[in-house]
Amino acid sequence: MAEKIVVLGSNGQIGTELVTALRKVYGESNVVACDIRRPDYDIKNSGPFEFVNVLEKDTLKSIFQRYKPTQVYLLAALLSATGEQNPKLAWDLNMNGLLNILDLAITYQTAKVYWPSSIAVFGPNSPKDNTPQFCVMDPNTVYGISKLAGERWCEYYHQKYNLDVRSIRYPGLISWKAAPGGGTTDYAIHIFHDALKKGTYASFLNAATELPMMYMDDAIRGTIELMDADASKITIRSSYNFAGVSFTPEILAAEIRKHIPEFTLTYAENDPRQNIADSWPRSIDDSYAVKEWGWKPEFNLERLAIEMINNLKK
Ligand code: SER
To answer: Is the pTM of this model over 0.90?
Structure first.
């Protein structure tokens, strides 16, 4: 059967690259990009684009009616740092946006739904190193709470309605094509921009804050691999732990200095994002993703830094 794919939240950091990747695989006209804002590049030129707010049920319904998608990717969300500035809006968007899509996917018999979760589902009492798939989860950001609740809803819709919903707990995603969306891990992108532009960067996380990260190309490939995997291989319907590389601001700065020797890193004090980072894992055990659908990252810190610097230089 020919695939028809709808991507909601297509203009964000992930959507921008996911739409491009999906259009390469499935053809430009078969991937419908949807967002509340008109995209400034790429997406609007090469395939269908629709204005959609995932909280407006009627608009959403008309999209399902018109395109009869076989796959839906829901990426529209408020992230960890932005969510703390507007907790109720974050809850509304992240939760009701998901429920709207899950319901429409049942009504219109969408074959597969993708929804991203995050390392933010873990909290201060989760194990910090090699955080397992199943452990204590006590997120203390509204973003993390909404992702954990969303995971439970995904599993519920799978068990109760047999919906084929798939999900990954993304670590901090490092990319250069589109700006990051207001997360706690965004420092690891800003640092490259400032290193090239100013030769110095003031990090809002302190030197030793280690967090799980991943280069965007790995994340996009992993996402499509999960969606392509045979349903019988997928035992986890909440969300898969997913790992790339872990590092601290200090380690990242040392890597950048291999290319820009005069680069200096300073630290901004008392940023609220520090508390969020301190509640998250340092590294992730993704053995279920490895075992069940063959996940394997390709970008280590060295390669990630080279890609970021070379592409941002252009
Ligand atoms: N990058 C995200 C954030 O920092 C984590 O899911 O909010």
So the answer is: yes
